[in-house]
Design goal:
The complex is a heterotrimer of chains A (80), B (562) and C (474). With 80 residues, chain A is mostly helical. Chain A has 3 helices and no strands. The termini of chain A are far apart. With 562 residues, chain B is α/β, with parallel strands linked by helices. In chain B, helix 5 packs parallel to helix 13 and helix 13 packs across helix 14. Chain C contains 18 helices and 16 strands. In chain C, strand 9, helix 12 and strand 10 form a beta-alpha-beta unit. The longest helix of chain C has 29 residues. Classes of the chains: A mainly alpha (80), B alpha/beta (562), C alpha/beta (474). Chains in contact: A-B, B-C. Chains B and C meet through strand 3, helix 4, helix 6, helix 7 and helix 8 of B and helix 3, strand 1, helix 4, helix 5 and strand 4 of C. Strand 3 of chain B pairs parallel with strand 4 of chain C. Chain B: It is found in: Endoplasmic reticulum membrane. Chain B: One of its GO terms (molecular function) is serine C-palmitoyltransferase activity. Chain B: Pathway: Lipid metabolism; sphingolipid metabolism; Sphingolipid metabolism. Chain B: It comes from Eublepharis macularius.
């Protein structure tokens, strides 16, 4: 029973996606093309996020810790 | 303490302007002005309550703002459709895809194209995809329930095939059958049938030549009596009544002030007349007054000669907005500035007012204050044609100079008889109270349906007493989805999108009828509730605006007493 | 040479003088220049001030303004004010103003107005659908009857598609502006009917009138346009061209020269719109109109428009042609989109009338015979001139010699009409809006021939008109 409700809900979500993106009125091949484009875009966003976000987070972390935390030795050395 | 027209400008009417939308040019401009209306972005609903002075009854007209997110998503939707439209046109151009639409003859391909391709971009790539929601053929009386012919399309709405099956008893929320006089049984059709067997269907001549039947004269006397005017004249088509009579009334050197949402027939008539046309914001009296003042003070452009005459052209009920004209104010302005008033009651005659005499009756005004009373027989009277009523001089002039009277075939006798019978019924001259009951029923239906829709959380437009109820859909895909889902549930609705509305404000429109019983309305409401959840069109962020069914506001009452 | 030398010399002198002038002089001149500038500016300022009216002045202006009356008064005895009253059906036998007459005025060419079959079909439709449609075609105003009528009309006219309008006048008046827009060029006959004129006006196109049925004049205009096009080929490539003609002119009773028109069409690449309100159901072996009369292929005409208010004796009108052309009107024809659809009983009547036309093609031959007979019978009446060709069922009788003014001509013709009406023949003057017509036709009496009129009645009418003319004009 619960599974059916989840399934219904997912179908409903898909329907909303169709309506909002207007792919509801597209012909099937157009619709699949549209899905492909959306999926590609989303995948690329996810992939770039996966590749770049950790690096950026680390860099940001380092940057802020430099600003607010104690200065690491290396920078002190550099300054000297 | 009668508030004279000189007070008009001074009354606080800020709200009246803040929902001003889509500028000149038939409302084709993008409509998202409402969001940037400024001062009252906090109050999502503009309630305009005019209880003061000129109004004898509360005047509640609501136009809720388009939610920002919805507006953005709507534009995104149009963007997607436009992109795919370009793609398809590209494929068609390079003959990769078969062209469905008809093309010109081979022999005439070197002629200048009959119509420009880009004109049809919208038709081909947007309208065509959801075309099944329009032109649905029916095969019974367009009463409260209607039988529809089932049709299918195997090529995505380029062509339709009739399956031969009939979808029975669809609830009809689309026909302008306000008082339910469209019937195939009963006294009206019997009367029409009798006249049909006596007179035949055609007339084969014009009014001025040999087509002026005794029936026409009878009808005109009755219409004049019904409207409370001196004289009236009937014409064969409502559209043509406007487009062929306005040119007879005004001409070069005259000024027409026209509401921006006026019907195409009024626009055409104004254009054909050769008069200068200026457009005021929809139902906005400040805008109208400014135009009137400027017109008289500055005269005609360039020559600065005074205008010969000024004609204000308004409709009683606006068919896309469901709003009612602010007639008391218009009349006050018209009197103050000595102009003339042309009132098109196509949707209001029969449908408004305690005795069904239209918007003049609704506000309790004197019909003599309106110079030209125009209306149609198509809607409330369940027939066809139009009329113009007014002073005897006006009608005499039209009898001589109306384009319709000289060049167009007159009304078909059985149609005339249907009009006569239904007007007599409304006036109670048939010895029954059916007419009165129907008017009562319609106004109850209207209030009930509007209240329930509001409670459900739909955004609906217009005056609380208008039997035309626009329900906002906004997104283009939802136009098609709404029409299809409702038909699946055996309810016939009208959906409207661009260019009849501003591009963003696509809507569904319900026309209530006295023929709708409470059960029918309840079924429709139940299904609407479901579809509303399914399509997520309950946009209203003002969930509970329980419409107070008070007949008169305390304050209103006092002021009208003065 | 010397002059230019002199000029140069003056210039040098000026510069020298400028250097040599005392400082106070320069300052003075500077002030003068500034003064002039100030004067100039203050002048414009004053102009602005003058147009800025005070509220009080505005009030006064508003107070002063007196508009013209909404309509000018109409004299009580205006000839067009008092209509003939027809009691009962306007069929073959008609009662006008209480007098029984034989109808020579209504366009009921085939006598279908009181045909029992047509009436029965309409009755059946009435008991199924009621009277009104309560909506435009788009919004539940499309009935199965409409679809059937469109299909039948298309089949009858042997075209791909037909579209029906709920009003005859609105048909061609909506069809023209659906295609012809601002900047396009329309060549139109001077005698074109009022509906065409209004359609042209609504289209806001560039309109060129050619002399009535004068193909040479039309070709002259087309040639002129061709030369114009060569000057500006860029513009010519987007300028649509149309010829709008009537099959059988209601104002003159003439048949258009269709074969020549078709030749001109291909020569100058112009599209032809044909208004067949009078010729549909009259000309041709099967009543298909002027195309059949001349044996022209339907495809050579871009659009045929006709009303169903004459031969078919119903109400409304239709356009037919190729789908490419006609389909465009379903979204662009104003009278189609924005008007309630045709009451189904009228559509059903039109279908039945079409059936009758298809079943008795002989009827058109009979009508032709009668037209010819009437035409010869009316010829040679002293004082009256017959206008129109012998195959036209609507003939015009004009005064041979005008009395001087239009009004007095009209009065004379009215006397003739009244004379006949008192003796049992119903006639009517052709009515026009004098000020609105582009080329106002001369006043005339219109005589309409129908198949129902017997030879005896035709003779009676002709001799009565002759008698009337003799008694009135002499």
């Amino acid at each position: 029973m619960d599974l059916k409700r989840v399934k219904d809900y997912i179908y409903w979500l898909y329907y909303q996606y169709l309506l909002i993106s207007c792919s509801y009125v597209l012909e099937p091949w157009e619709r699949s093309m549209f899905h492909m484009i959306i999926i590609t875009v989303v995948a690329m966003v996810m992939y770039t996020a996966y590749v770049f976000v950790p690096i950026h987070v680390r860099l940001a972390f380092e940057f802020f810790s430099q600003m607010f935390g104690s200065q690491p030795e290396s920078t002190v050395l550099l300054m000297n | 303490m009668k508030r004279g027209p000189e007070n008009l400008g001074g009354q606080p009417r800020a709200n009246g302007c803040s929902f001003s939308k889509h500028g000149a040019g038939g409302g084709l401009k993008n409509g998202y002005v409402r969001g940037s209306a400024g001062a009252d972005t906090h109050s999502q609903i503009h309630r305009i309550v005019h209880n003061g002075g000129l109004y004898k009854r509360p005047f509640n007209e609501a136009f809720e703002e388009t939610p920002m997110l919805v507006a953005v998503l709507t534009y995104v939707g149009y963007g997607v459709l436009t992109l795919f439209g370009y793609l398809r046109d590209f494929l068609r151009y390079w003959k990769i895809e078969k062209c469905h639409h008809a093309t010109d003859r081979e022999e005439q391909l070197d002629f200048v194209p009959l119509y420009q391709d880009f004109e049809n971009f919208y038709t081909r790539n947007l309208y065509m995809r959801i075309r099944d929601s329009w032109n649905r053929p029916i095969c019974s009386v367009p009463g409260a329930r209607v039988d529809m012919m089932e049709r299918v399309s195997h090529d995505y709405n380029w062509t339709f095939k009739y399956t031969g099956k009939v979808i029975k008893d669809v609830i009809n929320m689309g026909s302008y059958n306000y008082l339910g006089y469209t019937q195939n049984t009963g006294p009206f059709s019997e009367a029409a049938s009798k006249v049909l067997s006596q007179y035949g269907v055609g007339v084969c001549s014009t009014r001025q030549e040999m087509g002026n039947l005794d029936k026409h004269e009878e009808l005109e006397t009755l219409v004049a009596r019904f409207l409370g005017v001196e004289s009236a004249m009937a014409y064969g088509m409502g559209f043509a009544t406007n487009s062929m009579n306005i040119p007879a009334l005004v001409g070069k050197g005259c000024l027409i002030l026209s509401d921006e949402l006026n019907h195409a027939s009024l626009v055409l008539g104004a254009r054909l007349s050769g008069a200068t046309i200026r457009i005021f914001k929809h139902n906005n009296m400040q805008s109208l007054e400014k135009l009137l003042k400027d017109a008289i003070v500055y005269g005609q452009p360039r020559t600065h000669r005074p205008w010969k005459k000024i004609l204000i052209v308004v409709e009683g009920v606006y068919s896309m907005e469901g709003s009612i004209v602010r007639l008391p104010e218009v009349i006050a302005l018209k009197k103050k500035y000595k102009s003339y008033l042309y009132l098109d009651e196509a949707h209001s005659i029969g449908a408004l007012g305690p005795s069904g005499r239209g918007v003049v009756d609704y506000f309790g005004l004197n019909p003599e204050d309106v110079d030209v009373m125009m209306g149609t027989f198509t809607k409330s009277f369940g027939a066809a044609g139009g009329y113009i009523g007014g002073k005897k001089e006006l009608i005499d002039y039209l009898r001589v100079h109306s384009h319709s009277a000289v060049y167009a075939t007159s009304l078909s006798p059985p149609v005339v008889e249907q009009i006569i019978a239904s007007i007599k019924c409304i006036m109670g001259e048939d010895g029954t109270t059916i007419g009165k009951q129907r008017i009562q029923q319609l106004s109850e239906n209207t209030r009930y349906f509007r209240r329930r829709l509001k409670e459900m959380g739909f955004i609906i437009y217009g005056n609380e007493d208008s039997p035309i109820i626009p329900l906002m859909l906004y997104m283009p895909a939802k136009i098609g989805a709404f029409g299809r889902e409702m038909l699946k549930r055996h309810i016939a609705v009208v959906v409207v999108g661009f260019p009849a509305t501003p591009i963003i404000e696509s809507r569904a429109r319900f026309c209530l009828s006295a023929a709708h019983t409470k059960e029918i309305l309840d079924i429709a409401l139940k299904e609407l509730d479901e579809v509303g959840d399914l399509l997520q069109i309950k946009y209203s962020r003002h969930r509970l605006v329980p419409l107070l069914d008070r007949p008169f506001d305390e304050t209103t009452y006092e002021e009208t007493e003065d | 040479m010397a002059a230019s030398m002199g000029q140069q010399w003056v210039l040098v002198e000026m510069v020298q003088a400028f250097y040599e002038a005392p400082t106070y002089h320069l300052i003075l001149e500077g002030i003068l220049i500034l003064w002039i500038i100030r004067l100039l500016f203050s002048k414009t300022y004053k102009l602005q001030e003058r147009s800025d009216l005070t509220p009080k002045e505005k009030e006064e202006l508003i107070e002063e303004w007196q508009p013209e009356p909404l309509v000018p008064p109409v004299s009580k005895d205006h000839p067009a004010l008092n209509y003939n009253v027809v009691s009962g059906p306007p069929s073959h036998k008609i009662t006008v103003n209480g007098k029984e007459c034989i109808n020579f005025a209504s366009f009921n060419f085939l006598g279908l107005l009181d045909n029992e079959r047509v009436k029965n079909a309409a009755q059946a439709s009435l008991s199924k659908y009621g009277v009104g449609t309560c909506g435009p075609r788009g919004f539940y105003g499309t009935f199965d009857v409409h679809l059937e009528l469109e299909e039948r009309l298309a089949k009858f006219m042997r075209t791909e598609e037909a579209i029906i309008y709920s009003y005859g006048f609105a048909t061609i008046a909506s069809a023209i502006p659906a295609y012809s827009k601002r900047g396009d060029i329309v060549f139109v006959d001077e005698a074109a009917c009022f509906a065409i004129q209004k359609g042209l006006q609504a289209s806001r196109s560039n309109i060129k009138f050619f002399k009535h049925n004068d193909m040479a004049d039309l070709e002259r205009l087309l040639k002129e346009q061709e030369i114009e096009d060569q000057k500006n080929p860029r513009k010519a490539r987007v300028t649509r061209r149309f010829i709008v003609v009537e099959g059988l002119y209601v104002n003159t009773g003439d048949v258009c020269h269709l074969p020549e028109l078709v030749k001109l069409k291909y020569k100058y690449k112009v599209r032809i719109f044909l208004e067949e309100s009078l010729s549909f159901g009259v000309l041709g072996e099967h009543g298909r109109g002027v195309t059949e009369h001349f044996g022209i292929k339907m495809d050579d005409i871009d659009l045929i428009s006709a009303n169903m208010e004459n031969s078919l004796a119903s109400i409304g009108g239709f356009c037919c042609g190729r789908s490419f052309v006609i389909d465009h009107q379903r979204l662009s024809g104003q009278g189609y989109c924005f008007s309630a659809s045709l009451p189904p009983l009228l559509a059903a009547a039109a279908i039945e009338a079409l059936n009758i036309m298809e079943e008795n093609p002989g009827i058109f031959h009979v009508l032709q015979q009668k037209c010819k007979k009437m035409h010869t019978a009316l010829k040679g009446i002293p004082g009256l001139r017959v206008i129109g060709q012998s195959l036209s069922p609507a003939l015009h009788l004009q005064l041979e010699e005008s009395t001087g003014t239009r009004d007095s001509d009209m009065r004379l013709l009215k006397e003739i009409v009244d004379y006949c009406m008192n003796r049992g023949i119903a006639l009517t003057q052709a009515r026009y809006l004098d000020k609105e017509e582009k080329y106002l036709p001369l006043p005339s009496i219109r005589v309409v021939v129908t198949v129902e009129q017997t030879d005896l009645e035709l003779d009676k009418a002709a001799s009565l008109i002759r008698e009337a003319a003799e008694s009135v004009l002499n």
